[in-house]
TrEMBL record:
Residues 1-27 are annotated as: Disordered. Keywords: Coiled coil, Transferase. GO terms for molecular function: transferase activity. Residues 80-126 form a coiled coil. This is Glycosyl transferase, putative. Residues 112-272 form the DUF6827 domain. It comes from Eimeria brunetti.
Length: 272
């Protein structure tokens, strides 16, 4: 009867659970099963020591073939195995929590990156949309723009390896460099034009005229030549912002040309 049970164990539904042999060969499995399920008259499982060795060999056979729930049913798992399983579950939970934490950190970094890119684009659009030919407008807003640029540079420190952030920041810095140079040269041209106007008085009537400035013609010629040369250089170095260069320095040269005759490149763009 025990042998028939062994044959049913190896060939019946339980054998289907066992699947293909993973450890010993099928012949060795049959030998172990037949030995463990032999009749009670045999001496292999009569004594306590032989029965323990039989159960041990039987459990070894099951461990190599059956899944964990079936081993628990046959009592072939110890408390140590349960403890190991609990430890594995705890390790899996810790690993899952660590992955979730890393995922949240990555999402937070991506949000900060998107906000930084939006601030870069917004500041660049604001500076480009401003009227660079209006000295009062630039004087009132320059401090605000400088503070915004400084704040953006601080926020961009963690993203120094990001190519897109570095590209946007580099473009914004170039725009500010052009703004400073063009603004300073335009202010200098405005001062020269104001000096020429003041010597003739209010409306050219001589009323309230300032003292005449010596060597004004030579100074105006030198300033016009230097500004015209700088205008060409800025157009070459900042081709992406050529419209702003024309709006600030180019318009200043055109206004100065009304008072002092000189030639500069691209003068045909200004009809006054």
């Amino acid at each position: 009867m025990l042998r028939s049970a062994a044959s049913r164990l190896s060939g019946g539904p339980l054998g289907a659970l066992m699947g293909p042999p993973k450890g010993p060969s099928s012949l060795q499995q049959q030998l172990l099963l037949s030995r463990c399920f032999s009749s009670s008259s045999s001496s292999s499982c009569s004594s306590s020591s032989s029965s323990s060795s039989c159960s041990k060999s039987f459990c070894d056979l099951l461990r190599s073939t059956l899944p964990y729930p079936v081993l628990m049913h046959f009592g072939c798992t110890s408390s140590i195995s349960s403890l190991q399983q609990q430890q594995q579950q705890q390790q899996q939970q810790q690993q899952t929590q660590q992955e979730e934490l890393e995922r949240e950190q990555q999402q937070e970094v991506q949000q900060q990156r998107q906000q930084l890119l939006q601030q870069l684009q917004q500041l660049e659009d604001t500076v480009l949309a401003a009227n660079w030919g209006d000295s009062i407008n630039l004087m009132l807003n320059s401090a605000i723009w400088d503070e915004a640029l400084e704040e953006i540079e601080k926020k961009s420190i963690p993203f120094q390896g990001d190519k897109e952030v570095e590209k946007r920041l580099h473009s914004l810095r170039r725009l500010f460099d052009l703004l400073r140079v063009a603004e300073d040269m335009r202010d200098h041209l405005n001062e020269i034009m104001e000096t020429q106007s003041r010597k003739s008085g209010i409306g050219g009537t001589g009323l309230g005229a300032s003292a005449p400035t010596l060597n004004l013609e030579a100074a105006t010629a030198a300033a016009a030549a230097a500004a015209a040369a700088a205008y060409d250089v800025l157009l070459q170095h900042y081709p992406d912002f050529s419209a702003k260069t024309e709006e600030c320095l180019g318009a200043g040269l055109a206004l100065l040309r009304q008072k002092y005759k000189f030639h500069f490149n691209h003068e045909h763009k200004f009809f006054f």
